[in-house]
Amino acid sequence: MKNKIIKYISIAFIAASINACDFLEVDPIGKTSIPVLFSNVEGIRAALPGTYSMYYKYYSSDFLKYPEAAGNMLHLSSVSESSDMIKQYNFTSAPGDELETVGYIWRYIYEATANANNIIEYQPALVKNFPAQETELNRIMAEALFLRALGHFDLCRVYAQPYNYTDDASHAGIPIVLKTPGADTNLPRKTVKEVYEQIITDLESSLQYFEGTSPREDYYASPDAVYGLLSRVYLYMENWDKAIEYASKVIDKVPLSLGSDYLKMYNELEPGVENIFRLNGTLRSSSLATFYAPISPLAIPADTLINLFQNQDDIRLQLLTKEDDSPVCKKYYITADVSEENKHYDPFVLRGSEMYLNRAEAYLHKNKLDEAAADVKAIIARGLQVDITEITLDETYDQLAKTIETERAKELCFEGHQFFDITRRKQDLIRSANTNSSVKQIQYPSDFFVLPIPQKEMDTNPSMEQNPSYN
Fold first, then answer.
1. Residue 97 structural domain
2. pTM score of the predicted model
3. What residue stretches are annotated with the SusD-like N-terminal domain (predicted)?
4. pLDDT band for position 423 (50/70/90)?
5. Is residue 86 part of a domain?
6. Which residue has the higher pLDDT, 54 or 6?
7. In a domain, 254, yes or no
8. Which of 107, 111, 175, 287 is a plausible cystine mate for 187, CB 3.0–4.6 Å?
9. How much is the average pLDDT of 207-231?
10. 3-state secondary structure string, the chain?
């Protein structure tokens, strides 16, 4: 086993069974090798659910908790040294935190992308050898390209400053891994611009491979998922035209979940009509359920979030309060009448509401205030369960900007957006006066708005550059 975390992904987890989604640790000196596994269609077909499972592994844990703990809409119920996410809450992460969030996110996202890379590497030969299966193989390739793009985007958000940190995005990003590296491969960090270019290349290629394929179930990547991720990527890049273009492609096809259906997509094990891409947690564990448990939660909605809700009829409050009106996040609380073993937690990666908010923000920056107002009104009207014509807003630029920011915080809370939204907007982190964190405020820019590169990677990869202030 290699010490280097990037090299560690050469021992990738591949699905051994498409039905059970079990994993086989593929040891290069063992009886089974990756080339053998990918020598037929059955092998690559079995690898795909394993790849999704690896993405679920990091989404169902620290990756979704980190931008909330580091943000300004959450309190931790305990601030002892052993509390979950305490270092991210207090901005005391260190490179040596290999077995905690710093090492966990780095390691498991790169492992997930290794699975996608194996599919991408071996798919062309399979198309050549099994031309009758080309349509299925192209769909598998499309999904793998989407997942690889998602992995690189997520890593860049955690370990690199936002795209607009420098005028030309020339600051350090992450290593771009397009093929499982060899034992002596030392991969340097690419610029954030280069990382985003690769993300967009993968997503555009994914769309090409999706052409002529049939749509699958709710928990798989699709052309709509590609459009949705492109909308988010271009929003982070401040390419407003492209953000509008791709958000519109989704909005034109995907309706918002309304009324009780909105609650059911969180609590009743229903994908939701506005689902674009979410990960299936069937038969898998998730620490999100413990972190946000309705009884004795580790993480509690802060008053900075609750106070944003001026109308107590907003349906979204039903996901943020208990019966005694005390704050609690119920987005990861299953009320469906199923056994405990059949309960599962399916984190959203992309959904329709975000597309409205992406487009509203992009329209705002294009100074198309009427269009921006229409999109944010759709989100407000759904929350209040009224017709959009009943919503009136102050549509001056500054007030509309504030409304969009507020609705984004209310709508996407605890889904892994808040801290990333603060940093990409170049805002100061300002927490509630009642926060029990040792950090009340951090001015933008800050070296501590990114996590350090894990020390094990630094020790074994001479090409790796550490983030400032973590040396």
1. 1-214+433-471
2. 0.94
3. 56-235
4. very high
5. yes
6. 54
7. no
8. 175
9. 95
10. CCCCHHHHCCCCEEECCCCCCCEEECCCCCCCCHHHHCCCHHHHHHHHHHHHHHHHHHHCCHHHHHHHHCCCCEEECCCCCCCCCHHHHCCCCCCCCCCCHHHHHHHHHHHHHHHHHHHHHHHHHHHHHCHHHHHHHHHHHHHHHHHHHHHHHHHHHHHCCCHHHCCCCCCECCCCCCCCCCCCCCCCCCEHHHHHHHHHHHHHHHHHHHCCCCCCCCCCCCHHHHHHHHHHHHHHHCCHHHHHHHHHHHHCCCCCCCCHHHHHHHHCCCCCCCEEEECCCCCCCCCHHHHCCCCCCCEEECHHHHCCCCCCCCHHHHHCECCCCCECCCCCCCCCCCCHHHCCCCCEEEEHHHHHHHHHHHHHHCCCHHHHHHHHHHHHHHHHCCCHHHCCCCCCHHHHHHHHHHHHHHHHCCCCCHHHHHHHCCCCEECCCCCCCCCCEECCCCHHHCCCCCHHHHHHCCCCCCCCCCC
Is residue 440 assigned to a domain?
yes
Is the residue at 123 inside a domain? yes
CATH number of the domain to which 161 belongs: 1.25.40.390
pLDDT tens figures, 9-38: 433 444 333 333 322 233 333 335 788 889
